[in-house]
Amino acid sequence: MRTFQAEDEIAAVGSAIGASFGGGLGTTGTSGPGVALKSEAIGLAVMVELPLVVIDIQRGGPSTGLPTKTEQADLLQALYGRNGECPVPILAAATPAECFAMAFEACRLAVKYMTPIFVLSDGYLGNGSEPWLIPEVSKLPSIEVLKLPSKEDFKPYKRDEATLARPWAAPGTPGYEHRIGGLRSRT
Predict the structure, then answer these.
(1) What per-residue confidence (pLDDT) applies to 73?
(2) Exposed/middle/buried for 152, CB within 10 Å: 0-12, 13-18, 19+?
(3) pLDDT, tens only, 128-166
(4) How confident is the model over 25-59, as pLDDT tens digits?
(5) 2, 17, 104, 128: which could join 96 in a potential S-S bond, CB 3.0 to 4.6 Å?
(6) Is the confidence at residue 63, as pLDDT, over 80?
(7) What is the spatial distance between Cα 85 and Cα 61, in angstroms, rounded to a whole number?
(8) Strand order in the sheet with 90-92
(9) What CA–CA distance (Å, rounded) separates 71 from 153?
């Protein structure tokens, strides 16, 4: 795991997408105004089918006006706040203990289906507390990355029949070099 404080919201989501492109699971945290700034890059992650977890700790807005007032008003932005047809699954915690469960499940689903996932929470949950039994790691569901096909059968956007996800081949993996994006060139 590597963490760092990016200089702004756009750099944070770009770095998380870069981590996912490189074979790690990128995660970024923000609040509603930050989601607005990250929306174009989240759309890119949807288009190139990279796993990404966006944690949105909702608060009052707009901009930085109410950083300590709790609010749950980002659902529609999380659902529809990108250009074009760009769906993103959303998970939301209802209790402080569920914050762990939702974050874990978001990571599992993002990798399984090769898609960005939103986790919605808020300041009330983040500052709340409740009795919670820390789960044993061995009893958590496994997070499995789809096995790469043979080099001869590799196609960057060939779908897994069960999940419809594309294979996750990190750049530079011998025999799995590929380009991802929306433009095609013919040679």
Answers:
(1) 84
(2) exposed
(3) 889 989 899 999 999 989 889 999 999 988 999 999 999
(4) 999 999 888 999 999 999 999 999 999 999 999 88
(5) 128
(6) no
(7) 26
(8) 26-30, 52-58, 116-122, 90-92
(9) 49
Are the CB atoms for 29 and 4 separated by under 8 Å?
no
Q: Taking Cα atoms as reference points, which of 10, 44, 6, 59 lies closest to residue 180?
A: 44
**Distance in angstroms between the alpha carbons of the first and the last residue of the chain:** 40
Contact (CB, 8 A) for 54 and 119: yes
76-to-33, 47, 73, 79, 124 alpha-carbon distances in Å: 13, 20, 8, 5, 20
List, for residues 166-187, the tens digit of each pLDDT value. 999 988 899 998 877 656 555 4
Please give the Cα distance from 154 to 173 (Å, whole number).
12
Alpha helix positions (H), the chain? 9-21, 32-47, 75-80, 96-113, 123-127
Block residue for tokens 């914050």: 99
